[in-house]
Amino acid sequence: xxxxxxxxxxxxxxxxxxxxxxxxxxxxxxxxxxxxxxxxxxxxxxxxxxxxxxxxxxxxxxxxxxxxxxxxxxxxxxxxxxxxxxxxxxxxxxxxxxxxxxxxxxxxxxxxxxxxxxxxxxxxxxxxxxxxxxxxxxxxxxxxxxxxxxxxxxxxxxxxxxxxxxxxxxxxxxxxxxxxxxxxxxxxxxxxxxxxxxxxxxxxxxxxxxxxxxxxxxxxxxxxxxxxxxxxxxxxxxxxxxxxxxxxxxxxxxxxxxxxxxxxxxxxxxxxxxxxxxxxxxxxxxxxxxxxxxxxxxxxxxxxxxxxxxxxxxxxxxxxxxxxxxxxxxxxxxxxxxxxxxxxxxxxxxxxxxxxxxxxxxxxxxxxxxxxxxxxxxxxxxxxxxxxxxxxxxxxxxxxxxxxxxxxxxxxxxxxxxxxxxxxxxxxxxxxxxxxxxxxxxxxxxxxxxxxxxxxxxxxxxxxxxx
Length: 467
What we know:
Elements lengths: L18 H9 L5 H19 L2 E4 L19 E5 L26 H8 L3 E6 L33 H8 L5 E6 L5 H7 L2 E4 L20 E6 L2 H14 L20 E4 L10 H16 L3 E4 L6 H25 L11 H12 L4 H18 L5 E5 L17 H11 L4 H6 L3 E8 L5 E8 L4 H14 L8
Parallel strand pairs: 2-3, 7-8, 7-9
Antiparallel strand pairs: 1-3, 4-6, 5-6, 5-10, 9-11, 10-11
């Protein structure tokens, strides 16, 4: 396999447009949704054998909703991640442990997603139950990174990231229980906003957990697409406990106090990532913001508790799979990561009350950060996207966990605390792989993050895979 950029951009109805531009063309009658769908299907065929991002296709009958007809993103083709129910398609969650049957109804989030006007062409691949930070499997071929197919596209929304980065569609659903909107965004040169807990309707899986760490969102190639999606989703459902978001259309005027965090307490950031983060800090200072070193109140104890909670989720999946997923569920067919997490949790389950108490207390500690800062700038990941195999579920469990902790060293804080965070494609490694930076803000402050993202995008447009 040639290890070079793989994309599907061509002179068709989709062109190089983002979702906002395509929706405008549909509204103006310059293109119709059927043409966009046909172009996306043709593009998917061009990259599928190399990148393998699609779990289930519905190309002959794209799914739309009546509420979405004429919506802000009406007619734009997209995909839904294969851990959210879409009526008529199975929800396999990346696992070989059961036989997924077609869903009888949409998840609540699916209805909100379709209400924006998007047309769903199918579902994207994810690692088993979204537990890994790379879209790799025990027995199946992995999803690959369009920028360098020998490397990981991130996870667990790796299938979505591969489709958006390669140009098949301009926007795709993703969700995030430990970084899985922001990690693939960083690996594939995309924008990924994990919203405040409760900004969108509750995720069906996350809502059943004692601490809801899962939020839905999208991956895009432009900041305005991300902003347009959240504004459109808010028309379907707005949480009255959060400040209204509305449509963010450009940079803000306010000069911000930005805290800079380069290293995690559990992992030293590699030199290439450090350089990109520090360059971004300099750009923000040049834009008039004040950037100063900051320290986060989350150390090794937080990471240990998060891994324990991760194991609790794997344990619950194994315990309830036959009842909540399918009677065909077989624990013996779970992959090595799920099995290892489950076993580790069982060995330390007596820690559960203390673990949950400490994780719940983290929300107040997170809020305290923003009494002295408006935004925190950090890496998304502690090192550049690894090669395929580095995070395979077939790696010995103890080694795999250590590798994951040295990699995913920043993003879980926002999941546990519920705070918003956005990944932006700020630079590149020597091997051409994208490197992302992470911006965090106080609960409900997605507008602030989007305004800052618009400013960075205007200051230096993102790299494009087709250039």
